[in-house]
Amino acid sequence: MPSNKPTRRDVLGFIGAAGIAAAGSTPAFSRSLDLIERRIPSSREAIPAVGLGTWQTFDVGSQGREREAVREVLREFVALGGKVIDSSPMYGRSESVVGELGSELDIHSSLFLATKVWTEGRQRGIDQMEESVRRLRARRIDLMQVHNLVDVDIHLKTLAGWKAKGIVRYVGVTHYVASAFPRVERLMKDHPLDFIQINYSIADRAAAQRILPLAAERGIAVLVNQPFGGGRLFSTVASKPLPPEAASIGCSTWAQFFLKFILGHPSVTCVIPATSKVSHLRDNMGAGRGALPDEETRKKMIRAFEKL
Q: How far apart are CA 84 and CA 37, in angstroms?
């Protein structure tokens, strides 16, 4: 049965009708300005502030239109200066698809590969992580994260050894709900983490209370998942024009508005929206160029959003 829920395409279509960039177009500034980079605190390595998630979008077969679509997304991602791509064994075929397409496109050297361990037990964790290396066709993994804190203390011990041997470059933990933040906070204090990955958006700002300040204090990089609230934010803004604050930071779409709000927080290292559409990718990457909101502008953005 067709859904009446507004989609991102609907929202972009309305914006286009209002004289702002429509889906499939890339604002001129997005290619003419350098992609914003943030430094990983533990190493000072710089990475682009907008990455690419693969949950659901890259879980496709070996051929057909869906496969070709994500192939073009990955090709364009690198062409626009992207590096950080995040996956997981939980995401079906996503790891394998990234590895296969990375080889086909000859872009492995351009990617910062992040994936996860998502199982119980030390040996099962080792086996799963070794399989991820094979699926991604990588010599080593840039970032290995304990997914949703599953058997986290056991896996962090393994990963400490793997990092020392150079099998992985960085170690982190992830979760996607605010109710897990107390555990995330404990791990940030008790372990030498390089990264955390957490949910944060203009509508879900709980991470800003304790997690993001602690990340700055402890020198931990932050990947942000669910920047669009699983797509729910586009339902909130359907048929509504961008607020005045958008123009001051070069936003031409709601997606850029949401992403620039996140990147305006100084503790955020990289945001990882997922997509299987090149037009959406270009839109997302546009948020990683040009001005970002200062704290006062971010407050105005929140007020404007909450009035919708």
A: 11
The type of residue at 155 is H
- The model's confidence at residue 33, banded by pLDDT at 50, 70 and 90, is confident
Nearest CA among 227, 252, 271 for reference residue 11: 252
H or E element that contains 7: none
In this predicted structure, the answer to whether residue 259 has a pLDDT above a threshold of 50 is: yes
**What confidence tens digit (pLDDT) does each residue in 282-299 have?**
999 999 999 999 999 999
Integer Cα distance of 94 and 89 in angstroms: 8
- 101 CB burial (10 A radius; 0-12, 13-18, 19+): buried
Q: What is the pLDDT of residues 113-147, one digit of tens each?
A: 999 999 999 999 999 999 999 999 999 999 999 99
| DSSP, residue by residue, 44-103 | --EEESB-EE-TTTT---SSSHHHHHHHHHHHHHHHTT--EEE--GGGTTHHHHHHHHHH
Supply 81's token pair: 């200066």
CA–CA dist 10, 6 (Å, integer)? 6
User: Phi, psi (5° rounding) for residue 113?
Assistant: -90, 120
- Kind of pairing between the strands at 168-174 and 141-146: parallel
**In which element (H, E) is residue 123 found?**
helix 122-135
What is the spatial distance between Cα 38 and Cα 109, in angstroms, rounded to a whole number? Answer: 19
Of 70, 6, 3, 39, nearest to 268 by C-alpha is 39
Tell me how far apart the alpha carbons of residues 141 and 121 are, in angstroms, rounded to a whole number. Answer: 20
